[in-house]
Fold:
Amino acid sequence: MSPKTFPQGRSAPARLVSGLFLAAGLPLSGFGQGEELPVLQRSFAAVEKPAPPFEKGVFDPKPGETIAFVGGTNTFEQDLDGFLEETFQLAWPDRDLRLRNLAWQGDTVFYQARPRFFYTKAGDPQPGSVADSRERTTAGIVFIAFGKMESLDGPDGLSKFLDAHGELLDQLGTRTGRLVPVAPTPFFPSGPAAGLAEIRNETLAAYVAGIREIASKRGLPFVDLFTPLRGNVNPAFSADGVHLTAAGHEAVAREFARQLKFPKEEAGGEKPAASQSLRQAIERKNRLWQQYYRPTNWAFLFGDRQHVPASRDPLKREERWFLREIDSLPGLIAETESDIHRYAREAAGSEGEKR
Structure:
């Protein structure tokens, strides 16, 4: 796997493909996948009985729980800086939480393009090919963040969006009842469309109200990133008016902590030394996770070129060396996650001693 799987820049158009052969816009039936589940649903491990919703709607992670995120580019890019995971880990340093980002650039509530045979039961039919054998994410808590780009369809697209959002909640509800809808950040007065920010936000406000109503009717916790950031507009939160900068992602992490009533919010100023180690461990885990969830060389790994010589070990021709590489990543992720949990406990301890 290439180390460039997890891009270091932001919002570059080239990242829409990220080195993968996408099946964008093509019918699944064309690949023998007509009976497969929707992509986000099948990315999570199936369960006999989904976890029940949060008790009385109060957000409270369980020890060892996996917290997953689905959404578009802004959600994907929250891993670039690690502010949100650091906030989670420091809020519950003794719970060994595992965060998994399943977002993909360009995803909307209507469509999520993925490579051929991505987490499908049926793989490529050519001889020597195998189906996608990667571990699926265990759904503990799932944050669902859509609505910003969809709002560009205008007021007439609101009803269609809300129907699709509700359908997605139903799909993910087969995996867990611990769902948290997230309203998107506003459009910011920066970038080439700065002058359109306010009129776009007027439309987006209706979409946010719709997401809030869905969450309320279903008794789900809700995170509103639109209202507080619109009320305190900071152009530094976005370079192009749409996607977040590091400062924007840090502000988002604070809103998650405030609105979900994390037991401890980070104080401003210099982080303790142990927290710097925590951030580095989170960044490493995120790179490993993205190499696992979004591997390059997909066609040779689980796609339609598994049968060609280049997909096999140059000396042991019977072995698939791409499979060896991908199978090594869960262990590396687990090791790095152990470091995250240790550094979180150390950081929480040092902050407690200072107080």
User: Anything to note?
Assistant: The CA atoms of residues 26 and 113 lie 9 Å apart. The radius of gyration is 21 Å. The chain is about 40% helix and 5% strand.
